[in-house]
Amino acid sequence: MPLPPRLPIELLSLLPTFFDAQRDAKVLKTLSLTSQLFLKPCQTLLFNHIILTSPTPNATIPDGAYPGAKFFNLLERSPKVSRYIQKLTVSNTALAYGWLPNDMALARALKKLDPNQITAFCLRNNRRAQWYFLPFDVRIAFASICRSACLVELSVREVPLTLLGVCGPSLKRFEARDAEARDDGNISSVSRLASEEIVLDSLRLYHHFDLDKHVAYLVDPANKIRLDGLTKLDILAASPEDHACASDLIAHCRDSLRTFVFDPYSEISEPGIEGASVDLTDCTSLTSLELHLDATCPDPEGERHCLHWAASFISKIPPTTSNNIKSLFLSLRLDLSDVPGELTGYTGNQLYYHLRTIAVTVTDSISTNNRKWKALEEVKVDVQSSNPNDDDVEEIEAWVLDAMKPVSDSAVRFDLVALPHYMYGATFADPLATI
């Protein structure tokens, strides 16, 4: 009896690529054990992104169970695994001191990697486990990874911003959350050559303190970081002064900027509506504008001006910029318990007015000679309630839909999405393979 037809080996070897490394990790592990043919492609996916994080936040961890120790043991048993690692995440974001300062094996594990094959590095620390509490050899190992000749993406949290100064010219995307403005002279030994420049394509800054110091570092010519090629800029403003910082950064990338994402200071006062603007003049390449608004957050006087600021900001974007914007995205966070009379009271009516003002601004000019948003194709609004029971979401959806009626009635595509209730302190989604 003839054998049944068999697929060519070339096609069979592609089978693992149809699985998702995060969602289908167990399937890939099983598949890698079924045949030598699948071993390499499965391991390539499974070990492409290594995450070192504590599985039990704030719990006591035995020495042998530290992420660095487990990683070191893995590389000792299976040295070939290191060749598949291209992305590395080190996460020490537990509320307590965390594991990172006590993991004595981490530096030895990192030395087994070839830094020049790392394309993405994410380092998340916490405020209690300060950078200077970490072992010296661990800090040097992190700096060496930042120096990778292939590093394209770097994301840091609660570590010195000057790690950026270590990176080579391959870096294109940089994100910093509450980075430290002070320097660590110990990492200067691995700093890049004076002739090397970093030309960033994407920049994200989420700082609750000292944003001005970080901006000053980025725009200082001595640091050889170029922003004139930025296509995406994402900024959190934690004070009215941070709005000016956003304008300073925009001034360096007006010709290249395509996407601007902004989270304005939520407790902005009424005078701040005029005094804390963000200058988008002559951003002729800008096609996407995203605003993340804490719509119901009161200022110290109990007034809510964040949505008012957004309406004023959008209405004042000059035609040289607004005429090129194709997509407007609004993310609205609402806490109805913080709104006297909720959505039907005086405060709710004020918020409604400002939201309607935005809708009118971006649609009225479409049918007039004074066209300021003539390229607009879509408006998307996400709403998030702080109510964990989500019993007010339908009310909020109906309220937003009515306020945005000028958009939904126009030729512009309109999309309204209700997200799960807003959780304060939410962080990045967990990445792929955790050790």
| Assembly context of the chains | single chain
Rg is 25 Å
Give the termini distance in whole angstroms: 49 Å
The helix count comes to 14
CATH top level label of the domain at 243-435: Alpha Beta
Tell me, rounded to a whole number, the average pLDDT: 84
Our estimate of the beta-strand percent is 15-25%
> In total, how many beta strands?
15
Assigned CATH architecture of the domain at 243-435: Alpha-Beta Horseshoe
| SSE arrangement, N to C | HHHEHEHEHEEEEHEEHEHEHHEHEHHEE
* Helix percentage range: 25-40%
Strand order of the largest sheet: 14-13-12-11-10-9-7-5-4-3-2-1-15
Morphology: globular
Q: Which blocks of ≥5 consecutive residues have pLDDT under 50?
A: 424-433
Largest sheet: 13 strands, parallel
CATH topology of the domain at 243-435: Leucine-rich repeat, LRR (right-handed beta-alpha superhelix)
Please identify the structural class as seen in this structure. alpha/beta
Short description:
The chain is of the alpha/beta class and 435 residues long. It is built from 14 helices and 15 strands.
Q: What does it look like?
A:
The protein has helices at residues 9-12, 25-34, 36-46, 67-77, 106-111, 136-146, 211-219, 240-250, 270-275, 306-315, 319-322, 346-364, 393-403, 405-408, and strands spanning 49-53, 87-91, 120-124, 153-157, 173-177, 198-199, 202-206, 225-226, 232-236, 259-263, 288-294, 327-334, 378-385, 413-418, 433-434. The protein has 435 residues and is an alpha/beta fold. The protein has a domain at 243-435: Alpha-Beta Horseshoe (Leucine-rich repeat, LRR (right-handed beta-alpha superhelix)). The strands form two sheets. A 13-stranded parallel β-sheet has the order 14-13-12-11-10-9-7-5-4-3-2-1-15, with helices on one face. The chain has a two-stranded parallel sheet with strand order 6-8. Strand 12, helix 12 (346-364) and strand 13 form a beta-alpha-beta unit. Helix 7 runs parallel beside helix 8 (240-250). The protein is globular and about 65 Å long. Mean pLDDT is 84; it is low at 424-433.
